Every structure is written in C-alpha cells, then in structure tokens.
Amino acid sequence: MNPRARASRLVAALIATLPAMLPTVASAAWTLALDEAQVVAGATLALTALYAHDGPGIVTPQVPAHPVLRLAGAAGERTLELTRTQAGDAADQPLAAGQFRRVRYLAMLPENVHGTLLLSVPELGGQGVLVQVAPVPRSAESVPATPAEVVADRSESATRQRFESVSAHDPMYFIVGSAGDTNAKFQLSFKFRLFDPDDAGDTRLVRNLFIGYTQTSLWDLQGPSKPFTDSSYRPALFYHHAAVARYGAWTWGLQAGLEHESNGKAGVDSRSLNTAFVRPLIRWGPLDDAHWTFAPKLYAYLDKEENPDIQRYRGYGDFTLRYGRAEGWQLGATLRLGTERHHGSTQVDFTVPMSTRWLGNLNGYLYAQYVYGWGESLLTYNQKTVPQLRLGIMVVR
C-alpha cells in the first residue's frame, strides 16, 4: 500500500473515533409538555418542564418560581405569569449524569384568548409547545339577560378593566425620624396603562404607554399646626416595559418619557421642573432568588426657570443599585452627583417583609431609610441637610 493511501486510511480512522474522544456537554434547555393538548379559555393550564442532564459531572439547574409564559398566536402575543406547584421533583437538588428534573407549573388562561397558540418560557429556554384553546362555552339553557342585567354587567366589566389598568409605580411608604425635630416622610405613586394590552391592533409601543403620578411629602410633626414642610408632585407620560430582552441571567427593561415636577407653592417658594428621561432597568441573577438591579434614571432639563442652577446639586441622573430577593429582604442605594464638586446626595434603603413566623401573615415591609446630602426636597434643592434616618412601613417597593 502506498504512503498516500495509508495516510488517508489513518485520517479516516481518526475522524471516526473523534466523537467518542470528545466530552459530552450537558444540555441547558428544558423540554415543555402539556397535560392536555386542548384546553378551554378561562381554565387552568398545567405545564410540565423536564430537564435531562445528559453530560458529565453534577449540575443544579435553576428552577424559577414564577417564570413568564409567552402565548403567540394569530391575534398577536401576550404574556402570563406561571406559578410553580409542590408537585414534581425537589427544585434545589443536584443532578448527576443520566438524572432528570421534573417541575410543574400552573397558569390561568384569560377568557379572551382562543385558537392555536405557541407556548414558550424564555427563562427555561428550549422549544415551545402548541396548544389548542377553545372559546368559553355558552350554556344552551341559559336565560337571556334583561337589558338592566346587560348594562350592569358591562358597567362591572368596564370598572374591573379600569381598575386592572392601575398599578403601583415608584415605592410607596410612610416613615418617621428625628434630626432635630420629629418629622415624617411619605410617598404615593401610581401608573395607569393608557391602552388595552389585549388589543391585537395596538403596537408594542402603544400597549406600554402609561400616565404616572408620584407625590413625596415632608411633614413637620413637632412644629406649630404640624405643617407640611414641602411636597413634590410628579405627573409623567412614559413608556414602560419591565423585560424588553433576556440574555442568560440578564434581564433588560426600559422606561422613557416626560415628567413634570413642582412643589405647588407660590411666590419665592415656587419650584418646578420639566424633564425628559430614560431609565434602563438592568437585572442580573435569577428573578426568584437573590439578584442585582441597576436602574439609572438619566434626564435632561427642558425647563428649570425657577431653579436654574439645580444641576449643580442634583446633576443629570439618579443612579439606583439594589440587591436582594423579590420575596425577601432588599438593600439599595440611590446616588445623585451634582456638577458642582462635593454636591449631590445619597439615599440608602433597607426593607424586610413583615410576613414572618413572628409577625404572622402581614402585608408590606419594615423600612429603614437614610438620607444625606443636598436637596432632599425641591424647595431646598440648594441646601445641605443633616444626616437623617427614618423608620416605618413600605407598602409597595
């Protein structure tokens, strides 16, 4: 046999044995399966996720407690929140080669979806699964509603839809402290979705448009007549999407819009601002476990006639960083850097859920807030305040 033929046979033998020589890489994707391929709108959807570890070593796959379920069909796309049940395997146990993990999730389907839908869970990866959703059946023996009942039903439905369009915006809390005189600080914040997200004719931009309102007040509890020292009123029109994209452990969201801020006073105490802002929402880590959140709010002043040098004390951004669990304690800090040297402010927040085995099933969070720097209120934007620690309750964070 000539040398060239012998070399060719040797190369072919090496190629044939190469797959056996390479290490096997474990699959990081889950396989989704439905209990039933056909369900009815408004009913409970049961979904099973299966993770098979077919590689070397030991792994512990991340099992989110409330992942997002995407439903894509001819009428468009929408999302639901899944809830992990107790059925299935233990979520935090490691897997050896050849073992698998099985997890059960449940979700309530809306009554206004039907047809063939492709279901997928981005946090789990893998391929989607098809489901046939039948419309809500109408009873053949049902008695036709009277005109008054129809009007009442429509009114109740419209009221419920408007209520569901209102949600919390910034944190809401009530705290008390003392830095000389006893004082309180509280904040209320809501947002209202302008358009129905279920309307397939709306674009994603329109579906995520909101009107917001936030009020922050400082209250002197020791002075004569217990006056409000100052209040800040912030109406806003903005775009908000909590999860624009996901890349592995990273989740990217976005807020952007226009905001007005004023203190409602007249004369020399009047303060007001108009700003355009953009606020990336960057999260790293499993959302059902301890994770980081970085949310810098960057703004440009459109009108600051009543406080023309406010950028010297407030700068052009609020830089917020938080760490903790969605259902546990959280520690965060917000930093402002003024354009003037050594000007700015720092706010540190620490919250702990009140629902514990010692306090019972209470809502809300125990809240500690530390503030130091320039301009805690809009009225005192160019004044440096003494360090202030306040304690109280946070309703929404």
Helices and strands in order, then pairings?
Layout: H1 3-21, E1 31-34, E2 38-40, E3 44-52, E4 68-73, E5 76-81, E6 83-88, E7 100-108, E8 115-120, E9 129-134, H2 147-164, E10 166-168, E11 172-179, E12 181-193, H3 204-207, E13 209-220, E14 228-247, E15 250-262, E16 272-284, E17 291-303, H4 311-314, E18 317-324, E19 330-337, E20 344-353, E21 365-374, E22 384-396
Parallel strand pairs: 2-9
Antiparallel strand pairs: 1-3, 3-7, 4-5, 4-8, 6-7, 8-9, 10-12, 11-12, 11-22, 12-13, 13-14, 14-15, 15-16, 16-17, 17-18, 18-19, 19-20, 20-21, 21-22
Defining traits:
11% helix; elongated; 22 strands; mainly beta; 397 residues; Immunoglobulin-like; 2 domains; Outer membrane phospholipase (ompla), Chain C
What is the count of helical runs? Answer: 4
Structural class designation: mainly beta
Main pleated-sheet profile: 12 strands, antiparallel, barrel
The pLDDT mean sits at 82
**Would you tell me which CATH topology of the largest domain applies?**
Outer membrane phospholipase (ompla), Chain C
The strand order across the widest sheet is 11-12-13-14-15-16-17-18-19-20-21-22
- CATH top level assignment of the largest domain: Mainly Beta
Distance between the termini: 79 Å
Instruction: Give the SSE string.
Output: HEEEEEEEEEHEEEHEEEEEHEEEEE
Total strand segments? 22
Q: In the CATH hierarchy, what is the architecture of the largest domain at level 2? A: Beta Barrel
Tell me the fraction of residues in β-strands, as a range: over 45%
Fourth-tier CATH superfamily name of the largest domain: Phospholipase A1
